[in-house]
Amino acid sequence: MRLLKMAGILAAGIAAGTLGLFLVYLLPVQHMQEDMRESLYGFMAEGENPFLIEDYKGSSLDNYTDAIMLGSAVYESDMSFWQEAVRVPRAAGIEDAPMESLEHYLQGDENDQETEYSRYWHGYLLLLKPLLLFLDYGQIRIVNGCVEVVLILLVLREFLKRGMKRGMVAYVLALLAMFPAVFPFSLQFSTVFYIGNIALLLVLKNHEKWERESKYIYFYQIVGMCTSYFDFLTYPLFTFGIPMVACLVLNRERNLKDRMKFLIESGLSWSAGYILMWMGKWTVGSAITGENLWGNALGTVSERASSSSIGGGIGRILAVLRNGYIYFNEAGIIIALLLLLWIGICIWKYHKRISAADVWILILTACIPLVWYLAAANHSYVHYWYTFRALSVSVFALAMIPECVDKKTPEMGRTGNGV
Questions:
Q1: HEC per residue, the chain
Q2: What is the distance, to the nearest Å, from the Cα of residue 49 to the centroid of all Cα atoms in its chain?
């Protein structure tokens, strides 16, 4: 029955995702193009990957990919709307230069060529196309920043309502590890941020009910599906790891074996949602276009998971190290010191009131991003300047150890291993 329900959720997600894209591709693009022209000069002046902080790679924007997103949103082709929705065409007058291609297209260059990006869902277009009817890119950035601040405050409020003040500190440290100042300026980085934080907010609001009704298996499937639908393969593990850490801490009265089972089952559910939703796009796209999208997509997945271009087996280790290297600067050192001080002081002060099981399950969760980097070595090595944000899961997991202090037994504490 559970697998049947999960299959139904997947089918409904694929159908809804496809229908949603059909609908936004019915919107007229002329006004979108006009709004984009208004902010084009400033956008082009920034360049592909400007730094918010000079020489700090982690503060780099991704205007290159934002240009792909914007170019896909404003492009008008001769295809039917259902073909556009699965092919996602855009102008490509200059090879591997989406910003310049977007500029030439909006300036009316008749020599522009057309390219397609069909292996992803491009679910972000559900929001981006309607927004471009009313706002230019600069205004969208402002709205994006305001909404992200509101979302952060809502999460902090839920921590506070639960009396999880140490959890608030852990959350802030995790945010700092992501260098969140870039998010308002890069649509590319915002999708996963939204999904992960909304998932965390929902966990904090509904944990006891979902735990009692065994809803988490479906929740993580849906989160994985949403990540696959909206994301451009940035730091997707964030959407699983951040809410999972909260679940494990809220479940700390359960023994270690039960929490390990919960972690594994939820991880498999998230992975199934993520992978099968992606495959759903290839299947729908192949059916509508009459072309084999599976071949191109599987070739790309194989390349991103390989390590051949970065030194074979040793390359997977280099992928892990390169993502950690992003913190080898003043900002990273400050975050590391704050994390170590926070954990060290709390453990020194409350070590008799923290279960070993709590510590070990959170340390295990903190290692999950490392496994991801090893598995997706090529992608993690090449794009380390934004994939490093998955390490915020590690920071959050470790920083949540102090939240596991047993408040019920101030004298003796919990001395068992929780198994």
A1: CHHHHHHHHHHHHHHHHHHHHHHHCCCCCHHHHHHHHHCHHHHHHHCCCCECCCCCHHHECCHHHHHHHHHHHHCCCCCCHHHHHHHCEEECCCCCCHHHHHHHHHCCCCCCCEEECCCCCCCCHHHHHHHHHHCCHHHHHHHHHHHHHHHHHHHHHHHHHCCCHHHHHHHHHHHHHCCHHHHHHCHHHHHHHHHHHHHHHHHHHHHHHHHHCCCHHHHHHHHHHHHHHHCCCCCCCHHHHHHHHHHHHHCCCCCHHHHHHHHHHHHHHHHHHHHHHHHHHHHHHHHHHCCCHHHHHHHHHHHHHCCHHHCCHHHHHHHHHHHHHCCCCHHHHHHHHHHHHHHHHHHHHHHHHCCHHHHHHHHHHHCHHHHHHHHCHHHHHHCHHHHHHHHHHHHHHHHCHHHHCCCCCCCCCCCCCCC
A2: 19
pLDDT mean over 155-166:
96
d(CA 201, CA 245): 12
pTM of the predicted structure, to 2 decimals: 0.93
Distance between CA atoms of residues 86 and 118, nearest Å: 6
Q: Which residues contact 241 (CB under 8 A, 6 or more apart)?
A: 196, 365, 368, 369, 390, 393, 396, 397
Radius of gyration from C-alpha coordinates of the chain = 22
pLDDT in tens, 73-82: 999 998 999 9
Q: Is the pLDDT of residue 282 over 70?
A: yes
CA distance 157 to 168: 9
Q: Report the alpha-carbon distance of residue 47 to residue 100 in Å, rounded.
A: 10
> Considering the chain, what percentage of its residues have pLDDT values greater than 90?
74
Query: Nearest CA to 404 among 162, 156, 164?
Result: 164
The answer to whether residue 268 scores a pLDDT higher than 70 is yes
CA nearest to 400, candidates 220, 208, 161, 168: 168
Q: Which of 379, 191, 228 is nearest to 301 (CA)?
A: 379
Pairing mode of beta strands 89-91, 114-116? antiparallel
d(C-alpha 206, C-alpha 298), whole Å = 37
Closest CA to 419 of 346, 347, 359: 359
Q: How far is CA 225 from CA 124, 229, 327, in A?
A: 13, 6, 30
